Amino acid sequence: MTLPISSIGSIPMPSTLASAASSGSGEFQNVLTSTIDNLQSLQNNADSTAQKFMTGENEEVHTVALAGQQAELAFELGLQVRNKVVAAYQEVMKMQL
Q: Which of 24, 65, 67, 77 is 20 to 30 A from residue 53's alpha carbon, by CA?
């Protein structure tokens, strides 16, 4: 029995990036900017959650761990996507006309 894979949600999926690339550079820039802003907000959330936990506010350990892990995974995903885009760009630049 196989279970369907659900969407991550806040991180754009490849279909979003593909439609942005086909519709023009302005749309791709908007997707890229919103993705970077999303990564920054996840990092800020992890930082504020850890700060609340350390100051003794009403934060649970598992909430801090989940927020940190979510920010780390989102950053790693963004880094891998960037690496793939750079590699694709370098391959295009190697092509002879």
A: 77
Q: Give per-residue pLDDT as tens, 15-25.
A: 555 555 455 66
**In angstroms, what CA-CA distances link 37 with 47, 52, 97?**
15, 22, 37
The structural domain count of the chain equals 1
Distance separating alpha carbons of residues 43 and 25, to the nearest angstrom: 27
Residue 69 lies in a domain: yes
Kindly state whether residue 10 falls inside one of the protein's structural domains.
Answer: no
Domain that holds residue 29: 17-92
